Amino acid sequence: MTDRDLVGRTFEPWTYEVGMEKIREFAAVLGHQEACYFDREVARSLGFRDVVAPPMFAVVYCEWMGPAVLDPGVGIDYAHMLHGGQEFEFGVSVCHGDVITTTAAIADVHEKKNLRFFVFSSHSVNQFGETVADGRWTMIVRRTDG
């Protein structure tokens, strides 16, 4: 199988149930002080269903693309992998209690010198079927086979 044969490959969806403490911990570690990330009543007064997650919480429910990156059929040498970048388009806000389902695919694989670039796409929806985020993730792997 060549790298180009991997393009279009999809992975089994995975789910993540959003917990309030995880939102609070994530917001705190990033230095957020906005009350909507910590206080249910404030979040509701602002129109959210419950405590809301910061947008970049997407890295948590997408699990850094681990289910796709670690799939043996992709052939990524994890010991030689570097996270090269990520981009998101955000949809509806993610709140405590949401159940997020993420699907992923390989959008591109290419090489430059002795580096392989794996570009993954992700699509995440909540329990209502609403899009919460679409992502693009680039992983760079140093080739060790020549």
Commentary on this structure:
With 146 residues, this protein is α+β, with helices and mostly antiparallel strands. The protein has a single domain, classed as Roll (Thiol Ester Dehydrase, Chain A). It has 5 helices and 5 strands. Strands 1-3-4-5-2 form a 5-stranded antiparallel β-sheet. The radius of gyration is 17 Å and the shape is elongated. The model has no long low-confidence stretch (mean pLDDT 93).
Descriptors for this entry?
146 residues; alpha+beta; Thiol Ester Dehydrase, Chain A; 5 strands; 35% strand
Brief summary:
The chain is α+β, with helices and mostly antiparallel strands. The chain has helices at 3-6, 20-29, 40-45, 58-61, 66-69, and strands at 14-17, 81-90, 99-112, 115-125, 131-142.
